């Protein structure tokens, strides 16, 4: 395995995952190199369904081993919302800022601001037709306002108690030590390392 496709157009996500995969020594590509491939409709009812659909579809279309994730923010006071709809919480063409603004508005001044970020990542191998999955979770709280300039998505409003700051206040290196996506990729990394060691690069 010499190359892995990351099933996303999101360059921030590609950068995060690429650094986490660096121990593999493989070339990491993403969908920006395949402009003819349309985005997969994320119509699954769960993060697992969406991540598997993306990995299987993009891997099948390119012939490359594909790693794809779906991430959801689950807020206790909102009965687990936005959950699987996190990326489009404020509408189909919404921005990260729009999503954060809607979340803060929905929460208002509620005292229970507990939340959890969950990532489910899937890896599809076209050569074998096999799909593997891994999950990562980080618990935290939603802030009263935006804090930090780094990261993307809900990072500016997600406070991690063990770090004492939001994900957006961390460097990428710091975030990759504790984030939900990092935890999922680290689990998957062990599987990929075994595959490479048994089959060679």
Task: Provide structural commentary.
With 201 residues, this protein is α+β, with helices and mostly antiparallel strands. The protein has one domain (3-199): Maf protein (Alpha-Beta Complex). Helices cover 33% and strands 25% of the residues. The chain has helices at residues 11-21, 47-62, 96-107, 172-178, 180-199; strands at 3-6, 27-30, 66-75, 82-83, 114-125, 130-142, 158-160, 165-166. Strands 1, 2, 3, 4, 5, 6, 7 and 8 form an 8-stranded mixed β-sheet that branches. Strand 3 (66-75) and strand 4 (82-83) form a beta hairpin. Helix 4 (172-178) crosses helix 5 (180-199). The longest helix is centred in the C-terminal third of the chain and has 20 residues, at 180-199. The radius of gyration is 17 Å and the shape is globular. It starts with a strand and ends with a helix.
Summarize the structure.
The chain has one domain (3-199): Maf protein, CATH 3.90.950.10. The chain contains 5 helices and 8 strands, in the order βαβαββαββββαα.
CATH architecture: Alpha-Beta Complex
> Which sheet architecture does the biggest sheet show?
8 strands, mixed
Helical amount = 25-40%
Q: Do you know the CATH topology? A: Maf protein
Write down the secondary-structure element order: EHEHEEHEEEEHH
Low-confidence stretches: none
Radius of gyration: 17 Å
Alpha carbon gap, first and last residue: 5 Å
The secondary-structure class comes to: alpha+beta
- Binned strand content: 15-25%
- Per the principal axes of the C-alpha atoms, what is the gross shape? globular
Q: How many distinct beta strands?
A: 8
The domain count comes to 1
Mean pLDDT: 93
The count of helical stretches stands at 5
CATH class: Alpha Beta
């Amino acid at each position: 395995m010499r190359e892995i496709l990351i099933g996303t157009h999101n360059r921030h996500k590609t950068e995060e995952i690429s650094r986490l995969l660096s121990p593999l020594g493989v070339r990491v590509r993403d969908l920006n190199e395949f402009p003819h491939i349309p985005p997969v409709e994320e119509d699954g009812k769960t993060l697992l369904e969406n991540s598997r659909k993306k990995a299987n579809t993009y891997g099948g279309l390119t012939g490359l081993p594909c790693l794809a994730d779906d991430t959801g923010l689950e807020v206790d006071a909102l009965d687990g919302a936005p959950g699987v709809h996190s990326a489009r919480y404020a509408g189909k063409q919404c921005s990260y800022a729009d999503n954060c603004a809607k979340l803060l508005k929905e929460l208002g001044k509620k005292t229970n601001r507990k939340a959890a970020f969950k990532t489910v990542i899937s890896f599809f191998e076209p050569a074998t037709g096999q799909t593997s999955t891994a999950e990562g979770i980080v618990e935290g709280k939603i802030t009263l306002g935006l804090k930090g300039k780094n990261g993307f998505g809900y990072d500016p409003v997600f406070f991690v108690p063990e770090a004492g700051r939001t994900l957006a206040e961390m460097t990428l290196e710091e975030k990759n030590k504790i984030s939900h996506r990092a935890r999922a990729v680290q689990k998957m990394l062990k599987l990929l390392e075994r595959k490479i060691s048994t089959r060679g690069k």
